[in-house]
Each structure stands twice: as structure tokens, then as C-alpha cells.
Amino acid sequence: MKTVLFIEDESILQKSLSGMLQSNGFAVLQALDGEAGLQTARAKQPDLILLDLVLPRKDGFEVLADLKKSPETKEIPVIVLTNLEGAEEVERSLAGGATTYLIKANYNLKEVLQKIKETLG
Amino acid sequence: MTLSDLNISAQCREFKVELWACPHFLFVVMGFVMVSAIMATDYVSQRYTDQPEISALVVLGVTAVLFIISHIIVQSFERVARAARAQAEFIAIVSHQLRSPLTAIQWFIESLQADPKNCPPPFCENLSVIHEHSQRMMKLVNELLEVNRIEEGRFVLKATPGSLLELTKQCIRDWAYIASQMQVRIELKAPAVIPQSLFDTSHTRWVVENLINNSIHYARPDTTVRIRLEERAGELFWSATNQGTGIASKDTKRIFEKFFRGSESSKLQTEGSGLGLFIAKSIIQAAGGKIGFASQENQETTFWFTLPTTIIK
Prior knowledge:
The complex is a heterodimer of chains A (121) and B (313). Chain A is α/β, with parallel strands linked by helices and 121 residues long. Chain A is built from five helices and five strands, in the order βαβαβαβαβα. Helix content of chain A is 45%, strand content 19%. Chain A has a five-stranded parallel sheet, with helices on both faces. In chain A, helix 2 packs parallel to helix 3. Helix content of chain B is 58%, strand content 15%. In chain B, the strands form two sheets. Chain B has a five-stranded mixed sheet, with helices on one face.
């Protein structure tokens, strides 16, 4: 069973996507802020991380940089899942090591699930 | 007054308006007009009177009047420019803030719909209605953001290799259900193969979907929307023709204007925002293509666009 860590401060989004992932056979870890997400990633080493950019305590860019710096988490694919859509944010995330950049408002749950499956191969 | 106030081009960039409508540029232009008018008044008054006091008084009077007029004009332009800037910022902020809760509503409904145990039929049908309305609201918010990007010059197209024929076929498949609900058929006339070319897939899809959507919604029941795609010298030509009420001749000049809705369209489809064709035009023009339409009232209407193409061999 593949494990997905979802770092997102909006609890409704957490609940919706986590439920969808669980019913599709994934184990889901949840973190409501950047710092907690980073600690969970280091402790549990998930197969994939879904990362929002606007987060309390530590923003998504900092979390991404720390994940890619650390030998134990740098190989974990990260999908940035945000509603920020500026070219600067997209470039910064991809240059920082994110595998994919998805704008939440442009995807429904099934499409996000499909992207997760594609990323995990 | 600081040094930066003297940087006219920077001030004009801040307002994001054309140079001729920029208050700071107008202020300089009015300055030149005033100096020229003062010199002309001085020349004329000296010709008609030999008393320097009267000449000076005339020049002074004309200068004062010109100064007041120019001040009023520049102030008015500044107020308009500031209002337009504030409106653009307001739309951007509100739209961004609306997208997060709308995403939450849509995802939550989708998660409930995904599990039949949580979603008995009557409840699930009601949820679908809420979902559909939130999608409409999201579409409007996205359109407002797109208009904002266009007007602020932050609108960038990314061309990648793709097939306009395949994209059109996908869109037709996506709209087939709506068309059948409206009792309209969709027919595609295109060569079997059109070479791959370079264009911005997501924005072009947006244009194609919008034109197909309009053609279906404004068609009479039991008619056919005919979509045509062909390759012409160095460009792709795409069109959609329907049989319906057409566009009233008084509306033709304004059809691509922002927020404009034709008199007939408001009656037939109440939910439109009047932004679709404005955005479509901006996208096609940014891609170096052309867009237009031909309509005969109560007969048929064709919307078309062209895209210059770099064919991928």
C-alpha cells in the first residue's frame, strides 16, 4: 500500500482528498502546517507528498527546500497543490524540485487522484 | 514631491494605462499647450493693442483659464486611472480569495458523491445541483482573473506541439451530452489528418469550448452545429456555424467587448457573463491569429478563428 502525505491547512480539502485516496487503496498521512509536514515526512518517509504553498509556521517553498536538502526525503516525489498560479511560483516550485504543479481550482478530485497515480507510476 | 514623481514612464506603468491616457504624461502635454497658447496670446494681443498693461492682463487671464482647465482634465484622468487600477486589484484579490472556498465546496461534494453509502439518490441529486452552481461560479471567477491578466499585460501563451483536430474532437465529445440535451447535433468537417503544430493547448481549448458552447446554446432545437477545420497557407482555419436567432445588427460592433451581451443572448441564456468572446479574442490575437464572425439574423451565424502555425514535421 502506497503512503501519501498531504500537507494542507484547509481541513475540508484534507478531509475530501484524504477520503478519496483512502477509498482508492492509499494510506494517508495528514499535516496541517509546514513544520508538522516536514517532521512527518522525515519520520514516516511517505511514497509521495502533496504540498500546499500557503501554510502556517513554514510555507510550502521552505518545506520543499528542506525536503530536497535532506538525504532521507530528497527522493520523495512532491506534487505542489495550490491555488497560487503566478509564473514565479510555478518556476520556483519546479526549480526547487517539485515533480508537478497543480492548481487546485482547475482539477476535480478524480483528476488529482489520476495525477497521483501517474506520479507514483 | 519626490524624484520618483518626475519619472513619467514609471508613473504611467503604475496606472497600467496607455500613454495618452496617463495623467502624468497629460500634465506635461498640457504644459506645452499652455506655453504655446501664452506665446500666441501675447503675440496676438501685442498686434491689437499698443498698451503693454492690457497685453499683460490678457495673457494673464488666458493663462489662468488654461491652467484651471488643464488642472481639471488631468485630475479627472487621474481619478479614472486610479479607479480602474483599484477595480483591477479588487477583482484580482476577490477572485483569488473566492477560489479556495469554492475548491473546498467542490472537492467536499465530490468526496461525498464518490461514496454511495454517504450519498442516497435524492441527497446526491441535490448535491449535484450545488456542485453545478459552484462550477459556474468558479468559471466566472476564472474568467474575471483571465480578464485581469489580459488587462495587466500578464497574459502569456505557452506554445507546445499539438493537434487542433484532436483537440476539437475531444471538445466535441465533451459537449455531446449538452448538445443532445438541447436537441442539437454536432458535425465535424475536417481532413482526415492535420499535421501537428505549435499552439497553447489549454488556452486554445478554452476558445474552442467557448465557441462550441455558444453555438449549441444559441442554436434552434433540431438543427446541426457544423464545425469546420482546415489548413490554409501557413494557418489553421477553424469555424462553428449554427442555425438560430443570429446576432442583431445593432450588436455586431460590440460583440467582442468586455461584459457585452447581445440583446438576444440575454434572453436565450441568462447565465452568461459577457466575458467569453472578449477572452477568446485576446487569446487568438496574442497567438497571432484572427477571430471574427458572420451572422444573418434569424438564420445562421458562423464564428471563426485562424492560428498561424509552425508545422511539426
